[in-house]
Amino acid sequence: MSAVTGKAISVQPAQHTKYIVQYENNCILSDTIIIEVYPLAVSADWSEFEKTECEGQTLTATLTLSGYDAGVSGSYIRWYREKGGNEEELTLHAGQSSLVIQSSSEEESGNYRYEVSNGVCVMPQNPDIQPLEVKPAVRFTLPQTEYTVIRGEGVTLQATGIQPEDAVITWTDGVITHTANPAEISGITRDQIWTVKAGGENYCETSAEVSIRVDARITVDIALKDNTDRICRGTGITLSADTSGTGDNIGKSIFVPFW
User: Least enclosed by CB within 10 Å: which of 32, 115, 131, 171?
Assistant: First the structure.
């Protein structure tokens, strides 16, 4: 820095700098001062907070620090959350360069910010505020997750204990979709997997599966040429066994010859 004149000067050094002042009036008087500069730079990675999250996720915000030394007197890192007009310091995260929210819930929604000091400076000069919205997941219970039915019969599928109560429930087997709960499934002739989904505009979707298995018992169909035909020894008939079901054997097929 070149010499300047005047009783006062404004300086903004970027590093430790020594300044000398001289006063001349027949004799020369001088004095020296050293200004120590302790730069502090802070930035935050809010990427995991920037989108709406579902509860149960682990969320992390990380600070990048330059010029910070936790061992210097007066240094600190503080995290804050504002919700409903009330701001609180998250003291459990004091001194930590990362804010980690484990198994997030709707209670963690709010506006987050941080404050860092190196004992001299406080950053950021303007608050870096990041909103976070955590949506609750819908919870429900399935009385059964597996059914075995006789071929051609039906079953009632139902999700119970739904929270929140206004969540939207849908049932689908990939082809047919039912929006009613309970859902009546009729005329079942094949094994099926039904997926129940529970969600809504303000909730995160939860899903589960229910399997329907058709009775595994064998059925027999005896066919002749027509109802009036008689058969002789050596004449054949057709017996067909249907074994497409994979469920439990509800009933047994018994073949009894008679004359």
Answer: 32
pTM summary value: 0.61
Using an 8 Å Cβ cutoff, are 161 and 139 in contact? yes
Identify the bridge partners of residue 101 per DSSP, sorted by sequence position.
Answer: 59
- Complete edge-to-edge strand list for the sheet that includes strand 59-66: 41-45, 59-66, 98-101
Please give the pLDDT value at position 247. 65
Give, rounded to a whole angstrom, the gap between the first and last alpha carbons of the chain: 124
List of domains in the chain: 41-135 (2.60.40.10), 136-259 (2.60.40.10)
pLDDT digits (tens, 9 = 90+) for 139-195: 999 999 999 998 889 999 999 999 999 999 999 999 999 999 999 999 998 899 999
Rg of the chain's alpha carbons, rounded to an integer?
Answer: 39
Residues 213, 216, 222, CA angle at the centre, nearest 5°?
A: 135
